[in-house]
Specification:
The complex is a heterodimer of chains A (209) and B (388).
Chain A lengths: L32 E2 L2 H7 L4 H18 L6 H8 L4 E6 L2 E6 L3 E4 L10 E5 L43 E6 L4 E5 L12 E4 L4 H6 L6
Antiparallel strand pairs in A: 1-4, 2-3, 4-5, 5-6, 6-7
Chain B lengths: L1 E3 L7 H7 L6 E2 L2 E2 L6 E4 L1 H26 L3 H6 L7 H10 L5 E7 L7 E6 L6 H17 L13 H10 L8 E5 L5 H16 L3 E4 L6 E3 L4 E2 L8 E4 L3 H4 L14 E3 L12 H8 L9 E3 L12 E5 L9 E4 L2 E5 L9 E5 L10 E9 L2 E10 L9 E3 L1 E3 L2
Parallel strand pairs in B: 4-21, 7-8, 7-11, 11-12
Antiparallel strand pairs in B: 1-4, 2-3, 5-6, 5-18, 9-10, 13-17, 14-15, 14-17, 15-16, 18-19, 19-20
The chains are: A alpha+beta (209), B alpha+beta (388).
């Protein structure tokens, strides 16, 4: 057959959620890495219900996949002080690393746009001395837990840091840069506008062929 | 190749509007015309259209290699010197191209002849990829044409695949731009946004006039979001000459079509192709105006501006006299003369075959028909089929 086997048109009703995030660039301003629900909502890239859905998916996957520890001490040995939470898994009380955020990253999964859970940075990536302010490693800085009532369930309460360290579920260290609560705040200022289009205006015609 | 007169679907307007096809009628005149359909044999499609299209694309690649090593060619094509490195870099990097359309004269018998290559800003894409596809499905179901027909048209699925492969890893976000006034331009862009979305890309539209320049040298959209990848339905020869031309090189933006397409999208390509492959069955003799070899074309030829769109400023000269011409604003960069390939005349109608390439693969056909031998922006789009 010389023709397409099927044609779907999103505009005609097929709903698709685009996801995007580049690890290679390292300078993406509005990355789709969110520490918590409120940050996801504030970034305005996904709808509020999509944010909730992504977080609940990630949370369920996280509980299933995270390494289980029998004690807080054993877990914190790996993920740092305050980097763990207790959970119930198959009826047993366990300790797992906290859900530090979610990442919408297609290249990390085979099944499309599901959210990947992110864990706190490991002790290897962020040794204990780097977790306080002023250590010169702002991405490792530990926010105070439960310090803010506006924090809605995420491990990190604040979002002022411009870079933040995580660990992926596969154990890879990851630094998300330039994250801001709005997702847009670090965009450089606009120097000018309207530098394209003048030829078209002078021709009053279609620019295609 | 035959010209069929199938009955239009009684509710054809509603049927094409269901697909989101908003410009089936332009300025009160029918643009989408399903009272006509061209019928081909599979052999005609594969041997006379598909294969030569791939071959010409190969010649064009060879020409890009050649032009980048020859300043005289770049000047002849009126490429501003300040943009040479942008073009060269895009080719050396292997920046991928999305699509293009070869316009061919073909009568079903002799070899198809290349009239021109719309390599940079082709339109009539949605009607080729989707509207005629849906027409064929329905026309077969309703018995308006024979069951078991096919169509040379895998444009849609190839576009979606191509969007996913514009770079590695797949682009996350992509902007799309065109001018405000032209509905067919916007229709093409909207369709491509749809395809990109289906490839999992966050596709956003911004008007060409809204584009801004950030302090760090990147372009941004109307909402000041940086543009990292831009599909522009706006010709390179215009971008090269506007205010932001000097910002192109430092913009860290991947453009689609890539800058190297500027070398093959002007009519200046045609004399060079003929020079590289003289006597090629799918090429017409062509020379730059003023070249002494123009005399070989005799009194009948076509005069085309190096840059022009939609047939503007094209003059058909027969026996030394002007037979048909179309006014327009083009021509400042010079003209080429091309031997006349008389379009076949089907009951007073002249079809031009648009042979589509997606990611440089020949994959579809769209036909424009006019009652004069120069295809213009008033030409009707008519569907085609491959007979069982």
């Amino acid at each position: 057959m010389k023709r397409s086997t099927q044609i779907g048109l999103a505009a005609a009703g097929v709903v698709l959620v685009a996801t995007y995030w580049s690890l290679s660039g390292g300078e993406t301003e509005d990355s789709l890495i969110y520490s918590n629900l409120s940050e996801c909502r504030a970034a305005n890239q996904l709808s509020a219900s999509q944010c909730e859905q992504r977080f609940s998916e990630a949370s369920a996957n996280h509980l299933r996949d995270a390494k289980k520890f029998s004690s807080v001490a054993a877990c914190e040995q790996e993920f740092g002080s305050g980097g763990c939470q207790s959970a119930v898994w198959n009826g047993a009380q366990v300790v797992i690393p906290a859900l530090a955020g979610i990442m919408l990253a297609r290249q990390f999964m085979s099944g499309g746009g599901a959210a990947q859970p992110l864990l706190p940075p490991t002790g290897a990536a962020c040794p204990p001395g780097t977790r306080q302010p002023g250590s010169g490693r702002p991405e490792c800085e530990q926010p105070a837990r439960s310090s803010s009532s506006s924090s809605s369930g995420g491990y990190y309460g604040g979002s002022s840091s411009r870079a933040r360290a995580y660990t992926t579920t596969s154990g890879q260290p990851l630094v998300a840069r330039n994250i801001s609560s709005t997702g847009m705040a670090s965009t450089p200022s606009v120097a000018s506008r309207g530098g394209f289009g003048s030829t078209s205006r002078s021709f009053f015609s279609s620019s295609s062929s | 190749m035959r010209r069929l007169r199938p009955s239009p679907r009684p509710d054809w307007q509603a049927e094409v509007e269901r697909l989101g096809f908003g410009f089936h009628t332009l300025d009160g005149a029918t643009y989408w015309d399903e009272s006509v359909a061209y019928s081909f044999s599979l052999k005609q499609i594969e041997e006379d259209i598909e294969a030569p299209t791939g071959e010409i694309e190969g010649l064009c690649f060879a020409f890009v290699e050649r032009a980048l090593k020859d300043e005289a060619i770049l000047r002849r094509l009126a490429i501003p010197e300040a943009q040479w490195s942008l073009i060269s870099d895009s080719w050396q990097r292997g920046d991928r191209n999305l699509y293009g359309r070869l316009d061919l004269a073909y009568d079903g018998a002799g070899p198809a002849k290349l009239l021109e290559y719309n390599a940079d800003t082709p339109t009539a894409l949605f009607e080729a990829a989707v509207v005629q596809w849906d027409w064929l499905e329905q026309a077969m179901a309703r018995g308006l044409v024979s069951r078991g027909c096919d169509q040379f048209n895998s444009i849609h699925e190839r576009l979606i695949t191509a969007f996913g492969q514009l770079r590695e890893p797949k682009p996350e976000r992509m902007h799309f731009t065109c001018v405000d006034e032209a509905p067919e331009d916007r229709g093409t862009v909207d369709y491509l946004i749809d395809c990109a979305s289906q490839a999992g890309i966050d596709a956003r539209f911004t008007l060409i006039e809204e584009i801004g320049l950030l302090a760090d040298g990147r372009f941004c959209d109307g909402a000041s979001l940086p543009i990292e990848m831009l599909f522009k339905l706006y010709p390179w020869e215009w971008l090269f000459r506007e205010q932001y031309a000097s910002a192109l090189a430092g913009s860290r933006c991947q453009f689609v079509e890539p800058p190297w397409k500027a070398l093959v999208s002007s009519k200046g390509l045609l004399p060079y192709l003929w020079e590289m492959a003289p006597g090629h069955p799918n090429l017409l003799p062509a020379y730059f105006e003023g070249d002494p070899r123009c005399a070989e074309l005799g009194g009948s030829h076509v005069r085309k501006p190096i840059y022009s769109r939609e047939g503007a400023n094209v003059t058909l000269i027969e026996g030394g006299a002007v037979r048909d011409s179309d006014d327009g604003p083009y021509g400042a960069e010079g003209f080429i003369l091309q031997a006349t390939a008389m379009l076949p005349n089907f009951d007073g109608n002249y079809p031009v075959l648009g042979s589509w390439l997606v990611a440089s693969q020949a994959c579809g056909l769209g036909i424009r028909e006019d009652t004069t031998p120069i295809t213009k922006n008033t030409s009707r789009f008519v569907p085609h089929l491959i007979e069982p």
